[in-house]
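Take one record.
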Amino acid sequence: MSPSLWGLFGGAFNPPHYGHLRSALEVVELLRLERLLFLPSGGHPFKGADLLAPTTHRVAMTALAIAGEPRFALSTVEADRPGVSYTVDTLTRLSREHPDRELVLLLGTDLLEELHLWKDWRTMIDRTHLCLLTRPGFPENLSRTPAGRFLASHRVDGPAGLHRAVLGHHGFLIQPVTMLEISSTDLRHRVAAGRSLRYLTPEPVAEYIQRHGLYATH
């Protein structure tokens, strides 16, 4: 029997947008995920607090963004943690809370460049499977980064290979998805310039930003 897969999608979501949502939906379909947990970050070790909207707002916006897709769910495990939040601590907690699930942490190609700087990054594969989201046709030269070289030995050919009982360990998968040219940074600049966010993020998110005066100055 195939394992029950749950995806973990972390990020600042500052703010969330259709680029996040489109990639997330494709991953759910391609990996046949039972559920995808969105994990808005709390304190971020690489981003200053001056760049982030307050955690409560980012959590609220994420909840609005994912409403209506029953396979999407919100987790505040990182947002609720005081101080700086480290991914390895989140993975340790979630793997203990859901021992009967195969957890898959989603990573963007940009994160692969910095993964070796994360706390206890080599131990993350001991907690969950890792899935690198790429553009179709992305060159798969893993040897150019320390993390890529490490993860190459755990690589599986497809979603069906993400099975601890078969592998004897967690696996690493590269999964091409459609990546829209939308960024949270650009959305923040648009708000500061008084420009519309229509068709870049769900309307409830855009309305929330306007209602609470987020990103009005940069």
Observations:
- The first helix runs from residue 18 to 31.
- Residues 142 and 152 are 7 Å apart (CA to CA).
- The domain at 5-183 is CATH 3.40.50.620 (Rossmann fold).
- The chain has nine helices and six strands.
